[in-house]
Amino acid sequence: MSVTNRIRLLTVLTCSASGAMAPAQTTENLEPYVGRYTGFAGSPNQIEVKLESGGLHFQPTGQAPVAATAEANGTFRLKGLPIEVVFHHNDAGVVESFTFTQGGRPTHLTKVEVLDARYAAVATQVRPHGLSDAILKGDLAAAKVLIEKGIDLEELDTRPDVAGSNGRRPLNWAALRNNTAMIGLLLDAGAAINATNLSGFSPLHHAAEANAVEAAKLLIERGADLEQRNASGQTPTDFAIAANRIVMFEMLKTAQCTQRKCEEVAASRVAGLSELLEKLDAEVPGWLEQASVPGAAVAVIRNGEVVATRGYGYADVEKSIPVTPTTGFNIGSISKTIAAWGVMTLVERGELDLDAPVDRYLTRWQLPDSEFDEKGVTIRRLLSHTAGLSLHGYPGWGPDDVLPTIEESLSGKTNGPGAVYLIMEPGTQWKYSGGGYTLAQLIVEEVTGESFEDYVREAVLRPLGMVNSDFRLSDELMSRSSLAYDERGLPTPNPRFTEQAAAGLHTTVEDLAKFAAAAMATDDGDARGRGVLKAETVELMLTPAPASNLTYGLGYAATLRSTGRQGRGHGGSNRGWQATFEVIPETRDGIVVLTNSSIGSRAFQRIVQTWDQWLAGQLEHRQP
Predict the structure, then answer these.
(1) Looking at the domain assignment, is residue 557 inside a domain?
(2) How far apart are the first and last CA of the chain?
(3) pTM of the predicted protein model
(4) What is the pLDDT of residues 493-530, one digit of tens each?
(5) C-alpha 131: how far from its chain's center?
(6) What's the structural domain count of the chain?
(7) Contact criterion met (CB below 8 Å) for 471 and 456
(8) Residues 347, 386 within the same domain
(9) Using the 8-state DSSP alphabet, how is residue 84 labeled?
(10) pLDDT in tens, 263-304
(11) Whether residue 475 is found in the same domain as residue 573
(12) 530, 523 in Cβ contact below 8 A?
């Protein structure tokens, strides 16, 4: 995995599992650690280390800060996450870098000013790598001069602290930067359009990696090989699917497909259901053990119906209580999808207007004044994460904490992540905001005069037959629940949330599978919505919203499967819990996986991958 992707992974985990919490106090001087760190010079992916309230906080670009606990001089652990950070000094004793270890894999990041100094020293030389330097700086005039002087167009850039260690050629760099002018210059000068880096990535692979659509279009026009495979055997289209580059995939598919080829890309399932279930029954217990995940529950949907549910591992390890399909789990941010259904019932009734400013419905709290137009914050934009609001995710509260009110939460009493406010112009781009769903939760209460949990229970959960699901964590509900386990495999308190719509639903795999299936038609006809919503409303929710870059509808994220078909679903992660669900409306297939671990994704990713292989008729079998 590249350094860039590792930083992105750290960003995803920190934002889904934690926020900035009160750091542990330490007597160590923390000032030397403060600064911005990154994998290579010029990278937009950075982590800022800040000193606040007497402790260090780590903040990936564009995300909320996460507090760190000091374990020893120079060694810290991110709160609520299985990530250890160790700082490194140079020979003069100055802090220059740190290594974070996640999932057993170390990633090294260096202070930006240190890398910039090294970069500047190299960039003053015409050779080596002068052309790559010009491309990294976007200096077209310098690139022209170097080409006129006869610089090597195919020189591999292998500087570990400047450009990564995978040997990118100048044309690869230009594709990654989506610089069409530079691509045209290099190709006109004779650069090899399909030459690869040391990992077998062609310029078109790198365009797919960076979602550089314009660069990809130009490369294809100039003759790039759409079927070229990298060292992992992936074509650019395969890579776009794996990276969930939906816009890129659609462009590549259009470019490569004759009718026959398109039919091959959309391969249909050939294996029977029993083959998938036999594979899961044989493999999942071992996968849980390998991943140190105590338990998981799985449901499979076919033809719009729940056809199988399974429990694996333990709900209580110490007491050897097994997971069953009726075991309760927290599902984190999947709560947003159910909450969106609740909001849309009010839209169907005419009590909410999708495109009206939300302040029309608010009396108990108002968005703070900002430089941006708060009238652009609408229900549609709240549900699609295009409202321009802050606050990615919530860490939750402990069992003995007094929960804040919704108004207090929106104003910043969130156990770390801060308040909800506008950080960009509404409707201009996608920015995930759990805070937006908390605002939607308040609107439901304002309009109905009921608590959010009561309204959604009666409007959505019970009509869909979700009798073991609720946003209120009653003693009866929790008596049927699994324990939650942290990244070390130790029981951890179940987090509690004022922000129920964003992260608070407790459910079972049986119930969540009923909900997932309700978005699809059945063999008996188009029963989408199952009496809670109209079929056309469900279709609207599944359709990517404006400004979402085709990645998010109203409560549903869009994903690509290996068949080339698009799925809809959501993932969820809270301390002690990780879950995912996905449906493919076109084929009426679906999968639901719930785990009782902070690192449950290590197991559920393999389960979803197996389901994906089954859909494509490519199910792998364990060797006897």
Answers:
(1) yes
(2) 30
(3) 0.72
(4) 999 999 999 999 999 999 999 999 999 999 887 789 99
(5) 34
(6) 3
(7) yes
(8) yes
(9) E
(10) 544 444 555 899 999 999 999 999 999 999 999 999 999 999
(11) yes
(12) no
